[in-house]
Amino acid sequence: MTPSCATELRTHRIEVKLAKREWFGWDFSVRKWVVIGLVELVIFVSVLIMRPGDPLERHKRAFQAARQKISGRNWFTPVEEFYFKITATTRRPRGLTSNEISALHFQLESNRTALVKLGFVVERTFIISNQPVDVVATRVSGGLGSMLPKARHRFTLLDCRPKPNVMVVTGFAQDMRALENAIRKADVY
What domains appear along the chain, each with residue ranges and CATH number? Predict the structure, then answer.
């Protein structure tokens, strides 16, 4: 084959490819639909990731997360406790800084307020007269596990305000009668 024939053949193949609108063996119309499909997939995934969701569920999760971080427990804590029990070793203490604690308390309080506003839990204020408020809170919180089911116990919060000797209790409406009786009993104790 002469060089001029090879050049003619090469230019003929390029012209045929342009006429067929092929690109790397793909027809132009197929490539267009693949690109459109990828763009739609990216938009769909971004909408799923960035959707706001139900505000009640969001505040419930954030409330539980802040409470668990303050208490130092997470999903891995039972596994760690089992490991340390089996190996007879001690756990290294993990402490939070004062800034982290104050940020977690702010997060807990803001989500508690939002849960009250959304009507998921109710808030009652009790005036403690016979005992210091922290003593009453300790007695009541010690009995919460036997008094309330675990699912409802997770959203019960005893907030002590020692200056006016007030305890603000946040929990489910059906639990308030039992909590009120426990607080009165601990106050008179």
Answer: 3-50 (no CATH), 54-114 (no CATH), 121-189 (3.30.1370.120)
